[in-house]
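In this section we walk through a basic example: taking a raw amino acid sequence and producing a predicted 3D structure, encoded as C-alpha cells. The instruction is simple. Fold the sequence below.
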Amino acid sequence: MALVTALYDANVLYPAPVRDLFMWLAQVDLVQAKWSAAIHDEWIRNLLANRNDLTREQLERTRDRMNRHAGDCLVTGYEHLIPTLTDIDQGDRHVVAAAIVGGVDVIVTRNLRHFPAEALARHRLQSQDPDEFVVELLGLDPEAVCKAVHLQRVNLRNPPRTVDELLEAFIRNELLRTAEQLRRHADIL
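The resulting C-alpha cell sequence is shown next.
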C-alpha cells in the first residue's frame, strides 16, 4: 500500500528523468500517483514546444503507458470546482481541483508560489517541491526509493546510464538533495 497519494503537476512530468523517477516511485508502491488529462496536455504541449525531435504521437504513447501502469491515476470530474478556487493562481486551479477530487495528500510541483499553503490547507492539501518530496520518502523508506531508482536505471537502455550519470541527470533537473542522499546508497542503485 502506498505511503502517500500525490498529484504530479505538469512540471514534474516534464523533464523525462524526473517523470521516470516519479513513475518508478509509484511502481514500487511508495506513491499512489494522480494526474488529470489537463495535466497530461500541459506537459506534452510544453515538451513539444521545446523538443522538435519528438512527436505528439510518441508523447501520447508515453501518456497512455503512464495511465496503464500507475493504476487509478487519472482524476476526472473536477472541472466544476475550478471556478470556486479564487484564492489559487488561475492557471493552476485545475491542478488543485483535481487534487481535491482525487483525494490526494500532496501536490508535487516546482511552482510552489502558485499554491499558497493557507489556500491549500482549506482543502486539507499541501504542496511540495519534487526534491523535498523524494527526500521525505527517502526518510520514510530508503529501501523502496533505492529500489525505484535502481529500476529506473536498469530500464534506461537508450542510452544506458551508470549510477553517476543518473544522479547527474537528477542534479541537472534540480533534485540536488535527492542525488546527494542517493549517493550514500550508490552500491545498490
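Looking at the output, two observations stand out. Strands lie at 4-8, 31-36, 74-75, 106-108, 126-128. The domain at 4-133 is CATH 3.40.50.1010 (Rossmann fold). In the next section we compare this with other chains.
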